[in-house]
Structure formats: C-alpha cells, structure tokens
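worker-3 :: picked dCTP deaminase
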Amino acid sequence: MILTGPKIQQEVRAGNIRISPFSEEQINPNSYDLRLGNTIKVYKEHLLDSRKSNETMTLHLPPEGLELRPDTLYLGHTAEEVGSDRFVPVLRGKSSTGRIGLFVHITADLIDIGSHGQFTLMLHAVQPVRVYPNMRIGQVTFWTVLGDITLYQGKYQGSRGPRASEVYRDFDRETP
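worker-3 :: tokens ->
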C-alpha cells in the first residue's frame, strides 16, 4: 500500500522516513516532491562500456540554469537525502517535467529498503530543455512491505551527489 502525504509527514516526524531537508510545502496527496541538486555529471565518451568504469566530468548548475541536449545522458541528484528502513521509496518524475520532454529517472525507480542518501537522477531530454538548481523535478512515494526485511547494503549506499554506474562491478561476481 502507498502512504498518503499526511502519513509520509507523520512517518518523517516519527523517524521512520528520512527526508532532509524536509519541507511541508513539498508534500502531495500521496508523494513528496524532490528538488534537483546543483551538480550534474556527464560521461566523457559517447560509447559506454558496461564492463569498465566510464569517466565522467562534473558540471555545476548555475542559477541561470543548464540546457540539456537530447543526445546526452545527464546524471543529476536530488537536493534531499531520502531513506527508510521501514518503507520502500519509489522515485518518479513529476508530470510537469515530463510535459516539457524530460525523463527524470529512466529506469530503476524502485529504491531498496534501507538505502539512504541522495538519489541519482538519470536525466534525458526529448528536446533541448533548461533545468535549474532546486527546481522541483521528481517525487518519491513510500510503500509498505510484506515479509521479512533485509536492508540494502549495496554499492550506492550513502550516495551524495550524482553517482556514475558501477555495473562493471557486477561482472566480478558473475560466474562465466
């Protein structure tokens, strides 16, 4: 079951959901708005190799915004740190950002229970679009769980700022 906005606020106050910084103005009927942080990463190479670490460069979002181009994947992050050991966060784009042709989170919208940190946003523009630091860009919902809980302890735990893919690390664990 999905938590309502008032229930999200109640669980934040009780310490069962962490959203920092938290603002009541960002509560929706069944979600919480997330803002774009001030750092963007882009990959240096056009061809990305899933078996290696791909180099990135970091851009800082100026107050006048940054134009995102359709031919580039941008890694942004939420201004807020979010997490819960009791509820499962699900990250979505806002319909208002989708209506200007911006995919906010291309895939992997399910955040593991026990994961805490800033969310990395996988930004893709359908056509050129300008984004600004602290704009409301996405929303998080929280879902109750059924069954025993195993808390996330993976490679992206405690993320601050945008994190590039570490899928190459998975090849080390796979059997040939």
